[in-house]
Amino acid sequence: xxxxxxxxxxxxxxxSILVLKGINYPRDQFKEFFAAPERSKYETSxxxxxxxxxxEDSVRxxxxxxxxxxxxxxxxxESDYDAGYGGLVFTSRNAAEVFVDSVxxxxxxxxxxxxxxxxxxxxxxxxxxxPLEALELHxxxxxxxxxxxxxxxxxxxxxxxxxxxEWKRWTKRPKLLFLAGEEHKDSIPxxxxxxxxxxxxxxxVDVLTMYTTKVREDFVNDFSSIMRPxxxxxxxxxxxxxxxxxxxxxxxxxxxxxxxxxxxxxxxSKAPNCYIAAIGPKTRQEMQEFDCTPDVVAEKPTAAAVHxxxxxxxxxxxxxx
Length: 321
Description:
Number of strands: 11
Strand content: 15-25%
Structural class: alpha/beta
């Protein structure tokens, strides 16, 4: 059963928010949003759960695509629309950063001669698009940033890309290149090019795995160093979870501190004033696979939506920060 259903807590202390991800550069929406003067009652800290390791074989393949002009419209012909790609797809910031790194590695040639005037870049969100915007390539449109997840982005592409191809007067839809991580979901290729998609509506997708993720060895220690003082002082502490892996490691770390957030038909042993926020409904669903239900779920995967969900929860509990 859920604990604290009738709990009411009032405090004048600051509310701490522990974000289970690294800080994005050059700008991070969570850092900027909660650092605003009107939200001075919040203190944020960041602990990434995983780190990304580039797949060097894929980086070399991507570099070769760039040098061979496989992203440039001139490579297409009436007889060969498979010679290049008509667009790029990103559902993770890490993949976007690998792409940027690949372009920069090639150097002046890529920066000055690499033209993508014809090519849309489909991105799942603003944070994913950030590295691409900073690169300032010639011409590409970055689209789909309000999608929020891969499934929504795939449906956006299904509506946009065929019209784009018609506008370009291409007689065949060139393939899209999906730059992904090792553990990416299958939403993009399944919805665009899966067996259930009618042949005349299919958008072919090549997947290039750009990185793998591994759990940081220091995660539990970093997490505990922040949580222990909050537990001792009974101060309000929120933890924002983004991924299934983040849920798994969060529960492990809380378990090592002597707390159990898994609902298995018995009373849950929770840390005093420690609450969990899921970045969205899919993350909540993944958390529930571990028998853990978050206290709040953001309506959108944004800092503002997390803030609104927390504020509503605290107001209902008559907590003030």
